[in-house]
Amino acid sequence: MSTTPPDPILDIRGLEKTYRNGPTALGGVDLQIRKGEIFALLGPNGAGKTTLIGSVCGLVNPTGGSIQAFGLDIRKHWREVRCRIGLVPQELSFDMFDKVIRQVRYSRGMFGCAPDEARIEEVLKALSLWDKRDEPIRKLSGGMKRRVMIAKALAHDPDLLFLDEPTAGVDVELRRDMWKQIEGLRERGTTIILTTHYIEEAEEMADRVGVINKGRILLTDDKDAIMAQLGRTEAVFELAEPMGEIPAALSEYPVTLEDEGRKLVYRGGDGTGTGKREVAELAQDLTRSGIAFTGLDAHESSLEEIFVGLVEQGKEEIAA
């Protein structure tokens, strides 16, 4: 018995944004976000990530397409929708001379929420800001200022949270601590859309991944499905003696000779493990054929390598 999938919490159809006398930032974007998921939107600088977020959050006026959030058209019900959305922008934006706790309180009130000191305390403690609550923001480190931005976005308990490069400029330890906070938000039922240059964040956090370039969505899918579909194995055999050509016994393998015949390189398989099995079989066939090798270096494609490949492919298609 089939079940109908739930309506998306965010439904974007044919979204376009062309600036007057300027470039096309979004060229017909379709994107659906599921309730309760963490969705990572990956793309190089200028891909359209921030424009897409701004369109949903009411900061950018699209020139075409439609956006529905929580089943509501954001143009017709912008006030109701906006109160249920949180945004952590790339740029730090607050009164640097104000105290941390006052800025977070103000943000909650700005969205029409009743005062709730217990909730403010909970948010600040979750982000390790409680001890800094009475500090002027200007005295905080860059990483702590970034946490204040997240606290402000969470103060009104949004159902949908956008994190636009939330860990840009912070150190690795602080970044991982913030990942834990994001995971905690998901456990509370918050839907999170994350843009990042740190692709390991997508590998660590995301349920699904989308790749955008030149204002177009190149791919969206579950992270594991992308790895299975587009992942590859690369193995480099360091040969004891250079080879002039690939022997017939190895002709069925996806291998090439490199470094003047000193290296036999395998590139094949997928993200389901077939590559690893073929590399093991290749090693056995090399031994059976009397071809000695002094080293073997094998690795699976990372999400970063898949992402770079998709972006490069997209550039070629656009150029064509």
UniProtKB/TrEMBL annotation:
Pfam families in UniProt: ABC_tran
InterPro entries noted in UniProt: AAA+_ATPase, ABC_transporter-like_ATP-bd, ABC_transporter-like_CS, ABC_transporter_ATP-binding, P-loop_NTPase
Keyword annotations of the record: ATP-binding, Nucleotide-binding, Transport
SUPFAM superfamilies for this protein: P-loop containing nucleoside triphosphate hydrolases
PROSITE patterns registered for this protein in UniProt: ABC_TRANSPORTER_1, ABC_TRANSPORTER_2
Segments forming domain ABC transporter: 10-239
A GO molecular function held by the record: ATP binding
Name of this chain's protein: ABC transporter ATP-binding protein
Annotated source species: Alteraurantiacibacter aquimixticola
Lineage: Bacteria, Pseudomonadati, Pseudomonadota, Alphaproteobacteria, Sphingomonadales
